[in-house]
Amino acid sequence: MNKKIAKMFKVFFAVLVSFAACLYFYWVYACGAVNSYGTGHTERIEVPYGMTIKEIAAVLKEKKLIHNETVFYLAARYPFLDKSEMNGLQDSKFNLKSGVYEVSSEMGLSEIFNLLSSGTQEYIKISIPEGFSVKKIAKKLADGKVCSEKDFIEAANSKPLLAEYNIAADSFEGYLFPDTYFFTPLMSGKQAVKFMADNFFSKIADIPSFAGISPEELNDNVILASIVEKEYRIASEAPLIASVFKNRLDKNIGLYSCATIEYILTEIEGQPHPDVITYENLQISSPYNTYKWAGLPPGAICNPGMIALKAVADTPKTNYYFFRLTDLQRGSHSFSSDFRTHIEEGQLLYTKKTSEN
């Protein structure tokens, strides 16, 4: 009986060793190039922002650039398993970077990993100015062939996507940080919105006053910052403008912001950007009309930059309740605590124009 068991064990061990050897040789094979040098083909592979390693593997397999999706995934997640050329990736996980790459079937997995981790890819560089609205951003991205306007605007109003970021608002207006971005061609609107929203939350992590506040409190700050963004012209005056608005909110006085009237005219009604706000404009019936209603408007009127966000986060204590543009060329304002002084500064109400209206 013992001899029989020993014989069975030897057979089992031999089968196990054979299986392990076959598995090892297949693994080495699967980590290598699909084609030998001079016989392969090259494919243009798009890796959009947010694409997973499994999704990349599926695309590469479909294009006949790798042998096996599972081997690609495991080698990417656990680089020490990669048995193709050693190249420095063995000590860390595969660091995927979005982009558009030229991948050859003559590349082994390590070469593909190096390429997709290098950042040497095609991209579209687009600068989003402070104060741009969702609609303006959508048009700029569409003009740059990043994504369609419709796709971007739909994503910016997506309730499930807002819930994913725990945003207490009806849209991403105010949460798309103005910055210089490197987009990949033909991203989806959702990917572009997430790219910019991720940047927003990364940036405000550096503002201590925003740490630990509720989504509703953050949204109030974002709304106010969006108004400050459209009102200030000189950076040093942004905190003072924020103080005026906060003082008025504390007293339940209307904000009387020309920027909110501009938003109604241009973003809601689709009119051209006005140079001057008229008395008739102040009578528009809209919850965004801060001349008719006290408190904050229902949502942000643009996407504020760091100057406006910090001005709202760290607002100085003042007794100012009014401000007026006094030097159109310099963009400077006068600040006052009483209405009489405010009126004496002049009657014209100017609106701030961004660099690309």
From TrEMBL:
Its EC number is 4.2.2.29. Transmembrane segments: none annotated. One of its GO terms (biological process) is peptidoglycan biosynthetic process. It is an enzyme of class 4 (lyase). Keywords: Cell membrane, Cell wall biogenesis/degradation, Lyase, Membrane, Transmembrane, Transmembrane helix. GO terms for cellular component: plasma membrane. Pfam families: YceG. It catalyses: a peptidoglycan chain = a peptidoglycan chain with N-acetyl-1,6-anhydromuramyl-[peptide] at the reducing end + a peptidoglycan chain with N-acetylglucosamine at the non-reducing end. Functions as a peptidoglycan terminase that cleaves nascent peptidoglycan strands endolytically to terminate their elongation. This is Endolytic murein transglycosylase. The gene is mltG.
